[in-house]
Amino acid sequence: MSVDTHTVRRIAALARIAITEEDAARLAPELGAILGFIEQLGEVDTAGVAPMTAVIPNHLRLRDDVVTDGGIRDRVLANAPQAEHGFFTVPKVIE
């Protein structure tokens, strides 16, 4: 795909990027090459290829998100600076 300097200047104006004529002349073939590569990627037959989120297999290193019945109130409250009647105690901020 060919991109001319007029198109580059228009894209730059839409993006509110100030460029010179020299920049436009330099960027036109680069943008053309990028668009050509994108067209080339569109020609690849991906039928039968499952969508993926990464090119290498990876796994989360987090624990399983499992709902439990809790029952560890005292252990949780042990981390609180102040607790009372089974609840966190916070200072009053609004009178």
Describe the structure.
It is a single chain. The termini are far apart. Helix 1 (5-14) packs across helix 2. This protein has a two-stranded antiparallel sheet. It is mainly alpha-helical and 95 residues long. The chain is built from three helices and two strands, in the order H-H-H-E-E.
SSE arrangement:
Blueprint: H1 5-14, H2 21-42, H3 73-77, E1 83-84, E2 87-88
Antiparallel strand pairs: 1-2
Characterize this entry briefly:
By secondary structure, this protein is mainly alpha-helical.
| Overall helicity | 25-40%
Largest sheet: 2 strands, antiparallel
Q: From the helix content, strand content and strand pairing, which structural class follows? A: mainly alpha
CA(first)-CA(last) distance: 68 Å
State the helix count.
3
The dominant shape is elongated
> Which stretches are low in confidence, meaning pLDDT under 50 for 5 or more residues running?
none
Query: Strand-residue fraction?
Result: under 5%
Radius of gyration, in Å, reads 29 Å
Query: Would you tell me the overall average pLDDT?
Result: 89
Name the assembly state: single chain
List the secondary-structure elements in sequence, H or E: HHHEE
Kindly state the number of beta strands: 2
Strand order in space, largest sheet: 1-2
Highlighted features:
2 strands; two-stranded antiparallel ribbon; 3 helices; mainly alpha; elongated; 95 residues
